[in-house]
Structures are given as C-alpha cells and as structure tokens.
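pasting for the record
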Amino acid sequence: MAHEWFIIHTLSGQEQKVLDSINKRVDVEEVGEYINEVFVAKEKVVDVRGGEKKVSTKKLFPGYVFIHVRLRDEDHKVISEPMNFIKDTPGAIGFVGGDRPEPTPDAEIEDIKSRIADSEDLERPKVEFEVSETVKINHGAFEGNNGIVEEIDPEKGRLKVTVNIFGRNTPVDVEYWEVDKG
C-alpha cells in the first residue's frame, strides 16, 4: 500500500516534541521506509505588545501532528512497525482513530499546507475584526482616537476605520497591528 496522511494525537503542548522525536528516531529505528513526511501545522501571526509589532507562530491544530506514512498493507491491515513506532513516541497519544486509523484525504492536507505557505507571505493578526466594530487606534497620527471599522482587507492586513475628527467623520487606512479592539 502507498503512503497516506494520518493524524497523530499528542499531549497538550507536546506537538514539537513529538515531531522532533519522530525525526530523530526514524533512521535509528530503521522505519524510514514507512515514514515519508511529518509536520506540525503553524502559521505566522502578528501581535502588538508595548506599542510594537511582534511576529510569532500559532498552531493551527493544537494537539495534532500530521504524518505521511505507510501504515496499512494491501489488505488495509495495520502494519505493526510504524504503528508501534508512533505509540512509543514520547508525548504521542496515538493515531486519531485509535488502533484502526483512517487516512486523511490528500485535499485536506494540501489545504493545510497552502494555509501555512500563505502565512509565510501574509502575517495574520491574532485578533479578528468585524465590520461596524469599534476599535481604538494605538499608533500613528490618529493615536488615541476611537473609530468604526468600515472595511477589512485581510490580504493586505489593513482596515478602513471611520474616525470623528473636528466633528467630521474621516476614513483612515490603518494596519491591523495599529489598532486594538474597542
């Protein structure tokens, strides 16, 4: 049987530990013929701390590691070597689905990988905004003013916010990180 995508359930916060352990042990325990690829789904996010823009990573699926593995034979029976290898990995609970896991469709994995790749170019904010929501501008010429979100441009990470200045409503274009929720 060919390699298929499966999901490993991990202890909370142990995703990277599981990934590192698998990568270190693959050659030592001679299971390289079974395991093709392993990854933790993470994306870049932007946060503002102390008025400064900080870029960090966020797990898309906390508690899960994705693995491309030959886990089943031609009769769809589980092969013991890769199954036991994962069960013996520190921090891993086991495969999603237990002792008879079902593969994850390739299309779903491609969507996840695409989202990860997109985040390399586009930094996503930790905070999501909604139209007509009140925000406070915390950086730039309009710092300290409150405004109403009129438009959201997630591609560029920008908002159009209407601010009342000198008794007139004025549209202001700001980046996500320049505002705080109401």
